[in-house]
Amino acid sequence: MSHWFLDQGQTTNDEGRKAKMIMKTADWLVKEDGVCLLCKSVREWDLLAEEYRLYRFLTEVEDIMRLTATEQRDEESALSALRMLVRKLILNCYTVKTRLPEPNHKTGVSVVTLYDELGFPMTIQTEMNLPGTTLPIHNHGTYGIVMVLQGKQKNTFWKRNPTDEFPDRIERVGERIIEPGDIISFTSEAIHSIESVGDEPTITFNFYGETYGSKRFRFDFNKQTAKHF
User: Fold this and answer.
1) In the predicted model, what is the mean pLDDT of residues 148-176?
2) E strands along 4-150, which residues?
3) Which long-range CB contacts under 8 A does 89-92 form with residues at least 24 apart?
4) Whether the model pTM is above 0.70
5) Region at 105 (left for phi over 0; alpha for psi -120 to 50; beta for the rest)
6) Can you give the residue ranges of every domain in the chain?
7) Is 16 helix (H, G, I), strand (E, B) or coil?
8) What angle (nearest 5°) sits at the alpha carbon of residue 182, between those of residues 23 and 36?
9) Of the four listed, 18, 60, 76, 105, which is most buried by Cβ atoms within 10 Å?
10) Residue of 226, 175, 174, 178 lying closest to 204 (CA atoms)
11) DSSP E strands: which ranges in 151-210?
12) Are strands 27-30 and 183-186 parallel, antiparallel or unpaired?
């Protein structure tokens, strides 16, 4: 059964035909222009592996990022390879899928850190958002990959459109609902906001590169301002 979403006024006929062929799980990429692009996804049966654990994932991520730096590749190229590794990890590593946060009814958001090592410039975690929980408009100041494990997450995408009066002005581009098995990836300048939709908590696997505080912002659409996270 196909599962797809279209943003009115943003999808060409060719993109529409492509979208109708998407299987339930899909890979997406969002860049600074706020457009959510469908990416080629690796077949899951090609990712099956014995004893593929978190430490192998970390090593392979390091290899990709070293190669990216050596060959001066852009984030988009690196994200293509990293999305595949995230899907491979979730498919094969049962431990990751069972290390889930406890619900936090006060804030609506709870997080479990899966790996934390001094000098390892990456964030790897699972996150739970209770139904109706929203996160403000923000970028990450680094590349990021999110895979939905449970529930539904609505992403709204934005882009900068500065003016002399409002140098931090942003405008809405579109939105997409991400469901279990879907992966969405972001370049450093991509801007989005999040809402957990549906009747059950949204649980995600989150993977981010090294965050640079000077590049990470929270945006206020009503005031058309931005401030550091």
Assistant:
1) 98
2) 27-30, 36-39, 109-115, 123-129, 134-138, 144-150
3) 89/52, 89/54, 89/57, 89/205, 90/147, 90/149, 90/205, 91/44, 91/47, 91/48, 92/47, 92/48, 92/49, 92/52
4) yes
5) alpha
6) 13-228
7) helix
8) 90
9) 60
10) 178
11) 152-160, 170-178, 183-186, 191-197, 202-208
12) parallel
Q: In CATH, which of 3.20.20.190, 2.60.40.1930, 3.20.20.480, 2.60.120.10 is domain 13-228?
A: 2.60.120.10
Residue 195's beta-bridge partner residues? Answer: 134, 154
Q: 3-class SS at 149?
A: strand
Tokens of 57: 């994932």
Euclidean distance between CA atoms 83 and 47, whole angstroms: 12
Q: At 61, which helix (H) or strand (E)? A: helix 54-70
Strand bridging mode 225-228 / 134-138:
unpaired
Cβ–Cβ contacts within 10 Å for residue 89, how many? 26
Residue type, 145: I
**Strands of 144-150's sheet in order across:** 36-39, 27-30, 183-186, 144-150, 202-208, 123-129, 109-115
Please give the pLDDT value at position 19.
38
Residue with tokens 């006060």: 106
Tallying the residues shown for the chain, one arrives at 229
Where b means 16+ CB within 10 Å and e means fewer, 93-131 reads beebeeebbeeeeeebbbeeebeeeeeeebbbbbbbbbe
Tens of pLDDT along 1-48? Answer: 333 233 433 434 444 433 333 346 899 999 999 999 999 988 889 999
Model confidence pLDDT, tens digit, residues 86-131: 999 999 999 898 999 999 999 999 999 999 888 888 999 999 999 9
